[in-house]
């Protein structure tokens, strides 16, 4: 599907332009950070601080966070400004923001990549088949897709999480198990149902784009020519239609990666995610304190932004390199 | 020779692409006489459409007119320009390249109008045809309302943001005045649209291709232009509709006496319409003269090849005389300084490695050819060996020809 | 399969062709292809009637082995749809296409495969006819892959051979389509069509996207290939000079029907159908005599295939409509009256705009009784182009007066009674013989 020329084009555009390099470096950095989170984290991301008088991470009855902070001294490890101990400060229950940032990358990335991949796997074939065959098949497939579109994404996601349950899958952390990182949590909660739900919510977009592409490609004369010498439909779909519709699908995928990160964030905030260790959750948590303690949600926000930028830069690179009409180095016959 | 209305001298338009400079038009000379129909004929990539855009000053980035002058003869316009830009005016002739852009723009649509190949994409699908023609009328009226400054006054109450928003909010409050609408209907009638009052209120998709082409002509006529530039006006149409449109153009030309610059690839259309013809190849006119000169006393091998390529509707089914090879690259660094046709020319000789100038074929100077064959006879001993040029078979789709 | 075997097979095909020389290679009988608009699930739920677009409406013709049959007509006449339906790239609505005596639409399995090998197509657009993501070698090789011809090496050899044959060089095999010019791409498309050594090739506007000089190259190539491989062509084109140059016989199509079919020389020299005549006259000749050539242009546009005219489909534009026997009218006047009838029947005159005496009100007649005469004059001035003889004027005045009360049917009825032509009552049939034409003038 990806031919030699495309790989050489990918290499060449990568060499020639600066932006894909940034994108690749950024994304690699984020992925590495997620993988080696236990080694990078300075504190156990789940360990909370506590109020000196009550021993609880939550303020005593009748006190807002703000007043409590004003009464300094009563608080241990709660909402600390960045210090040498907590380089990015702590959040409102005293968890280390930097450690949570590092760990949060794991959940956010995993959900985003797997969710988008799932949506691709469902949406692209459905869309291609609908667009290529048309008629009743198209009607049936796309009307069911429309029904999914009729619900707001978040509402649909909440309903689906309700169906699948929100208990996260506890995956043991190999780095911690191997003893490289003392004092870090031994397993990480991966919100499996949220991943599936994200895929189920956004596959429709892939189906629509793929259908549109197939619809115009099936009238291309090379497709007709293939039919004329008896190429089976399934082979036309994989040989001609799929490769030629990849470009907009890849671009859409990069956008959807970002959308899934945000969807997970919303679900986490509403308590539907099952995990409390993701960028999205941190952003939502810090929202109320944005004015006084901006670091709580700022760093996870920056994380999401950088991921989205990185993925988009790579998407642009793919789009440019894979466009067959942009000439490569073989010009001049 | 009757009076010239346009004197184009050494006009060059280049496109600056990542591959290098593309010479879409270079060293283009043309004198257009008032009231004639001049045909520019050439294949795709020959630069004929860019020539039209250059005359209209509509060349878009990365293209730019890099040299040359376009002289336009109009006593009253020359009078207006004389005080502000004395250098640009020579008698009645104004060099349009030497006056500022807004003064030049005032001529667009009043002195020059253009009709395009694809009528469907030349109309906004969300406005009625009548409205769009009335708009042209409106613009033209404003342009002529203040001729002294030579500046089109396109600002007026109807053009204010407020009235625009009003027109969006209240469909009944249209953008144009009643008088320009009446004129639009009149124009539609002139170009032979039946029931023009009703058709004016229809949208472009309700028109057929031929009807839309008529409407586009109506729009171009809104300003009673001196020169109508028609860029492939019938290429998108069926032959029976093409015949209608050509007849219409002929009638309108006879009625108004306007000058038509007809750009086409169709030699039949040229033969039907034109008094004089220029054959374009690789950005320059290689042969020009009256229709009879060019079609019957052909000198340039390219013109001969072109005429030989057209299958004859009446004649016998002989083998066609195809021109071998493809249109050459127009990249500046690949063009070199030779006859650009030499690598496809069946009669290329060693002299052709040097660029030929324009030779007069006969004494009155009306038939000229950019080819050494005008001066000397073909000598097979001096023929260039085949495959002499490395660019043979090169991809040739680089030209800025926007067809 | 080696190239030797391949050429043996060609020889075998040839002998088969010789044996069947008497019967046509392709026989088309009653072919119809309608497209349906407003036919989606939603439209069904809403109870919308599907609208039939009659792209191809009852074709009958034969293609004989070794000949080139031209199919000519203006855009929208259904010629390309004919080509695609004939190759079963589209499902026919009705009709039979026989290839070597077998109905193409009923072929299954191995027979279908054989048909797919034997009948190929070359398309118009050199840019969309090649997959931009495939090397031209792979593109040409595809048919061989699909039908499992020879080993991988033999296929590649065959592709190189084909490239050379169509005038490209074999070492360009690994290049991509965007590196070629339009003419070269068209050559590649031709090579692909020839890969399986077919007997029959549909050429769908093979040169209309090319410049004339390149068109001449491609036409010459097509002629050479036909001679070398004994090919049978169906050439679809709107360009009459191309048809004239390359075809043996030609069928002229108008609005989904064949109006005339016969030998090229006969049709071009003695067109019998008024449409063919007008079509030929419309083409501007590339010669200096062109300016003085007298020709009659057709008026109006091609009607929509959604609602084609009754009777003869060409009658709305025909310069030779047959008036009723009892009328003695000049053709321009009759044409004018027929146009008026058309407008009245389609209720296509905007009365308020045409006449200042017409005023739209909720109740009552459109025009004041006192002003009916002026109203009728206004309509006539707006619609008619010729002066009418007094007798006809009276009839038409009477008819148009009905419009004062917006009684379109009444007006149409009066006009129909007097002016209905044979051409609208009866659809002329395409007769038998070597040069039939579907026209009442000709059949009489």
What is the fold's blueprint, element by element?
The complex is a heterotrimer of chains A (333), B (403) and C (444).
Chain A: H1 4-16, H2 19-35, H3 37-40, E1 50-51, H4 65-70, E2 75-76, H5 97-133, H6 135-150, H7 153-164, E3 169-172, H8 174-177, E4 187-190, H9 192-217, H10 221-228, H11 233-269, H12 279-286, H13 295-322
Chain B: E1 4-17, E2 20-33, E3 37-41, H1 48-55, E4 63-73, H2 75-84, E5 89-90, E6 93-95, H3 101-105, E7 112-115, H4 129-145, H5 161-169, H6 178-190, H7 196-199, H8 209-221, E8 227-231, H9 239-256, E9 259-264, H10 267-273, E10 276-281, E11 284-290, H11 291-296, H12 301-309, H13 332-335, E12 359-360, E13 368-369
Parallel strand pairs in B: 3-9, 3-10, 7-8, 8-9
Antiparallel strand pairs in B: 1-2, 1-4, 4-6, 5-6, 10-11, 11-13, 12-13
Helix pairs in contact in B: 4-6, 4-8, 6-8
Chain C: H1 3-19, E1 26-37, H2 41-46, E2 51-63, E3 68-72, H3 79-86, E4 94-99, E5 102-103, H4 109-118, E6 119-122, H5 136-146, H6 152-165, H7 182-194, E7 200-204, H8 212-229, E8 232-237, H9 240-246, E9 249-254, E10 257-263, H10 264-269, H11 274-282, H12 331-345, H13 351-354, H14 372-383, H15 390-401, H16 408-419, H17 422-425, H18 440-443
Parallel strand pairs in C: 3-8, 3-9, 6-7, 7-8
Antiparallel strand pairs in C: 1-2, 1-4, 4-5, 9-10
Helix pairs in contact in C: 5-6, 5-7, 6-7, 7-8, 12-16, 15-16
């Amino acid at each position: 599907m990806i031919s030699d020329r495309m790989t050489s084009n990918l290499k060449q555009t990568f060499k020639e332009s600066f932006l894909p390099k940034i994108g690749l470096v950024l994304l690699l950095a984020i992925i590495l950070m997620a993988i080696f989170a236990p080694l990078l984290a300075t504190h156990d991301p789940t360990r909370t601080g506590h109020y000196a008088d009550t021993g609880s991470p939550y303020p005593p009855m009748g006190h807002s966070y703000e007043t409590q902070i004003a009464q300094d001294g009563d608080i241990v490890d709660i909402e600390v400004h960045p210090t040498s101990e907590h380089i990015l400060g702590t959040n409102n229950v005293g968890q280390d923001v930097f450690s949570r940032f590092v760990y949060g990358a794991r959940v956010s990335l995993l959900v985003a990549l797997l969710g988008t991949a799932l949506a691709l796997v469902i949406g692209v074939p459905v869309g291609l088949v609908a667009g290529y065959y048309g008629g009743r098949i198209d009607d049936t497939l796309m009307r069911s897709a429309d029904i999914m579109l009729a619900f707001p994404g978040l509402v649909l996601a909440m309903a689906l999480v309700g169906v699948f349950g929100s208990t996260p899958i506890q995956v043991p952390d190999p780095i911690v198990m191997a003893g490289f990182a003392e004092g870090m949590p031994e397993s990480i909660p991966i919100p499996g149902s949220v991943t599936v739900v994200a895929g189920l919510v956004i596959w429709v977009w892939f189906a629509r784009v793929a259908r549109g592409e197939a619809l115009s490609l099936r009238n291309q004369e090379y497709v007709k020519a293939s039919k004329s010498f008896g190429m089976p439909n399934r082979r036309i779909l994989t040989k001609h239609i799929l490769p030629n519709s990849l470009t907009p699908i890849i671009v859409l995928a990069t956008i959807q990666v970002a959308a899934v990160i945000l969807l997970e964030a919303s679900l986490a905030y509403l308590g539907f995610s099952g995990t409390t260790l993701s960028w999205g959750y941190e952003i939502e948590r810090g929202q109320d304190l944005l004015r006084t303690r901006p670091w709580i949600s700022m760093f996870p926000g920056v994380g999401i932004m950088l991921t989205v930028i990185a993925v988009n830069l790579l998407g642009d690179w793919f789009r440019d390199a894979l466009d067959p009409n942009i000439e490569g180095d073989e010009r001049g016959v | 020779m009757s009076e010239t209305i346009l004197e184009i001298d050494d006009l060059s338009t280049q496109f600056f692409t990542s591959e290098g400079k593309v010479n879409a038009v270079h060293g283009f000379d043309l004198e257009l006489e008032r009231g004639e129909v001049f045909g520019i004929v050439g294949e795709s990539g020959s630069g004929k459409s860019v020539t039209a855009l250059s005359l209209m000053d509509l060349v878009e980035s990365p293209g730019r007119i890099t040299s040359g002058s376009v002289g336009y003869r109009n006593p009253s316009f020359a009078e207006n320009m004389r005080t502000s830009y004395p250098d640009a005016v020579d008698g009645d002739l104004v060099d349009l390249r030497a006056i500022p852009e807004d003064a030049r723009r005032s001529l667009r649509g009043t002195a020059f109008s253009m009709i395009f190949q694809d009528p469907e994409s030349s109309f906004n699908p969300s406005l009625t045809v009548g409205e769009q023609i009335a708009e042209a009328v409106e613009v033209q009226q404003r342009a002529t309302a203040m001729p002294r400054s030579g500046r089109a006054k396109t600002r007026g109450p109807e053009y204010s943001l407020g009235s625009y928003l009003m027109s969006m909010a209240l469909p009944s409050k249209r953008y144009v005045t009643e008088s320009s609408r009446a004129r639009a209907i009149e124009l539609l009638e002139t170009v032979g649209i039946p029931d023009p009052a009703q058709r004016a209120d229809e949208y472009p998709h309700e028109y057929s291709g031929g009807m839309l082409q008529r409407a586009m002509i109506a729009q171009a006529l809104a300003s009673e232009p001196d020169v109508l530039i028609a860029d492939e006006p019938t290429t998108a149409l069926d032959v029976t509709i093409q015949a209608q449109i050509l007849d219409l153009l002929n009638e309108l030309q006879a009625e108004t006496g306007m000058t038509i610059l007809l750009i086409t690839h169709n030699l039949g259309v040229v033969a039907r319409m034109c008094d004089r013809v220029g054959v374009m190849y690789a950005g320059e006119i290689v042969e020009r003269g009256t229709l009879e000169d060019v079609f019957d006393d052909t000198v340039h091998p390219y013109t001969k090849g072109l005429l030989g390529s057209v299958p004859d509707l009446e004649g016998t089914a002989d083998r066609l005389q195809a021109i071998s090879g493809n249109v050459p690259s127009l990249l500046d660094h690949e063009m070199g300084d030779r006859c650009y046709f030499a690598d496809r020319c069946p009669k290329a000789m060693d002299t052709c490695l040097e660029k030929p100038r324009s030779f007069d074929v006969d004494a009155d100077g009306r038939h000229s050819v950019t080819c050494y064959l005008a001066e000397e006879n073909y000598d097979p001993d001096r023929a260039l060996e085949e495959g002499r040029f490395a660019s043979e078979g090169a991809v040739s789709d680089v030209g800025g020809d926007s067809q | 399969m080696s190239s030797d075997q391949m050429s043996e097979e060609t020889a075998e095909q040839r002998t088969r062709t010789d044996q069947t020389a008497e019967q046509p290679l392709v026989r088309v009988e009653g072919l119809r292809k309608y497209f349906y608009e407003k036919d989606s699930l939603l439209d069904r739920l809403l109870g919308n009637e599907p609208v039939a677009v009659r792209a191809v409406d009852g074709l009958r013709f034969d293609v004989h082995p070794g000949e080139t049959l031209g199919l000519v007509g203006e855009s929208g006449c259904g010629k390309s749809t004919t080509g695609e339906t004939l190759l079963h790239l589209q499902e026919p609505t009705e009709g039979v296409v026989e290839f070597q005596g077998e109905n193409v639409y009923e072929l299954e399995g191995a027979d279908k495969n054989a048909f797919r090998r034997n009948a190929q197509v070359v398309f118009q657009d050199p840019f969309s006819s090649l997959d931009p993501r495939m090397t031209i070698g792979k593109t040409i090789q595809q048919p061989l892959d699909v039908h499992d011809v020879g080993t991988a090496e033999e296929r590649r050899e065959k592709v190189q051979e084909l490239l050379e044959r169509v005038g490209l060089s074999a070492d360009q095999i690994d290049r991509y389509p965007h590196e070629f010019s339009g003419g070269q791409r068209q050559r590649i498309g031709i090579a692909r069509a020839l890969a399986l050594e077919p007997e029959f090739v549909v050429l769908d506007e093979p040169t209309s996207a090319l410049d004339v000089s390149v068109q001449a190259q491609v036409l010459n190539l097509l002629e050479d290939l036909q001679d070398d491989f004994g090919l049978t062509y169906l050439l679809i084109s709107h360009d009459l000079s191309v048809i004239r140059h390359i075809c043996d016989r030609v069928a002229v199509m108008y609005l989904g029907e064949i109006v005339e079919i016969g030998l090229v020389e006969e049709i071009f020299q003695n067109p019998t159908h008024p449409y063919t005549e007008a079509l030929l006259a419309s083409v501007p000749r590339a010669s200096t005599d062109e300016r003085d050539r007298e020709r009659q242009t057709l008026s109006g546009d091609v009607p929509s295939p959604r609602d084609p005219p009754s009777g003869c489909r060409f009658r709305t534009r025909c310069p030779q409509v047959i008036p009723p026997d009892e009328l003695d009218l000049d053709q321009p006047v009759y044409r004018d009256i027929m146009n008026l009838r058309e407008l009245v029947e389609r209720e296509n005159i905007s009365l308020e705009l045409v006449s200042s005496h017409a005023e739209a009100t909720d109740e009552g007649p459109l025009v004041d009784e006192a002003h009916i005469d002026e109203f009728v004059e206004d309509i006539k001035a707006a619609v008619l182009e010729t002066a009418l003889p007094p007798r006809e004027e009276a009839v038409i005045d009477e008819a148009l007066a009905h419009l004062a009360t917006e009684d379109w049917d009444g007006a149409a009825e009066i006009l129909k009674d007097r002016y209905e032509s044979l051409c609208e009552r009866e659809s002329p049939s395409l007769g038998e013989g070597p040069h039939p034409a579907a026209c009442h003038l000709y059949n009489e």
